[in-house]
Amino acid sequence: MSLPLGLYCHVPFCASTCDFCAFYQEEPDRSGVEAYLAGMEKEWERFPAGLPVETMFWGGGTPGVLTARDMQRLGRALLARLPAPPVEWTVEMAPSTVKADKIRALLDLGVNRISLGVQSFSAKHLAEIGRRHSPSQVFSALETCRAAGCGNLNLDLIIAIPGQTAAELEADLRQAARTGVEHISTYCLTFEDDTKLMARLQAGQVAKRSEEEEAALYELTAQVLASEGFASYEISNHARPGRECRHNLNTWEMTEWIGLGPSASSQYQGRRHTNVPDTARWLAGLAAGKPELVDVHQLTDSTLASDALVFGLRMDRGVNLASLAQRFPATDWAQWDPLWQRLAAEGFLHVSGHNIRLSPAGRLLADRIAVHILELAEEPAALS
């Protein structure tokens, strides 16, 4: 069976690091950007020409720190080896990096979806999480994207920011919805190791919200966005009808994707791996003809099946067990039957024929349910 193929490009450059961010990144300079672009071209050439890429996603870091010319170079190099442009092509941008020439360059390439890392419309809360843009820059970025002709925009928002009240969150959500964007992603603030935010937490300078507070803010988020015409099609993602992110849907359904760039992950031809999160080592591996990879796993039916359950249950529509059993026939599907029965009896799972999906109460416990699913599955075998 031919699976949809995605292409993810990691742009590792950021002018500054947000307090909450744990993604691999580095400060840009001209020689570093040139070396990166050459490396991306070299890595892409390792794959066969003519791959039918359905979706493409540029993330980071901050892809928007690239110049319009850089974007054109990268985009043309990718397109030159594709049989057709991707159906959906998303590029992440920080509001402060949105310039008319960059947006025009992206749209000319065929980019048809821009994702803006807004996080909040409150200057106070932006400062709290170390974001460098202002609320006015958000509105300016939106105006620039629309004026250039971009008809599909996403806004990323963070909820449960320290000190953020329910009323302030609701104001952010309604402001986001009323900008007219097609998609809104909402992420609960997490405290990752080796971040400024974690250091502030350990120093007692900031307090983490309780699970009960986070759950209440999550429920408020879904209610407010539903009232503004956005369906919550995945735990953290809300879209107007027909505007769901196709790239992410394919990923959650455990299809295939190729990751290019330092720290980018791939799931392709029965193997899952991540490029080394270090640009110099990534470039050195490419130059030697032996890319440096980490977390390399040969994929089994059981691994893919359990991951399809974990990510599929995050979606509002849930999963169809019969369809998954056809895709992954070597999996012992009966191993999860007691879990489904218990979750259904406790009101956390809705069962309709072969389809299962989490109830609103179950969605609040999705991470814990995922742990139970994975504990019942076999562990993937690491390659030496």
Rg calculated over all Cα atoms:
21 Å
Mean pLDDT: 91
Helical residue percent band: 25-40%
Reading side by side through the largest sheet, how are the strands ordered? 7-8-6-5-4-3-2-1-9
Sheet-strand content, in percent, reads 15-25%
Compressed to H and E, one letter per element, the order equals EHEHEHEHHEHEHHEEHEEEHEHEHHEEHH
The count of β-strands is 15
Poorly predicted parts: 379-384
> Cα distance, first to last residue?
29 Å
Backbone structural class: alpha/beta
Number of helices: 15
Largest sheet, if any? Answer: 9 strands, mixed
**Bulk shape:** globular
Overview of the molecule:
α1 (30-44) runs parallel beside α2, α1 (30-44) packs across α10 (279-287) and α2 packs parallel to α3. By secondary structure, this protein is α/β, with parallel strands linked by helices. It has a 9-stranded mixed sheet, with helices on both faces. Strands 10-11-12 form a 3-stranded antiparallel sheet, with no helix packed on it. It has helices spanning 30-44, 68-79, 100-109, 123-128, 135-148, 166-177, 196-202, 211-227, 246-252, 279-287, 301-312, 321-327, 337-345, 360-363, 366-376, and strands spanning 5-11, 53-60, 88-93, 113-119, 153-159, 183-188, 231-234, 237-239, 256-260, 265-268, 271-275, 293-298, 319-320, 349-352, 355-358. Mean pLDDT is 91; it is low at 379-384. The chain has 15 helices and 15 strands. The longest helix has 17 residues, at 211-227.
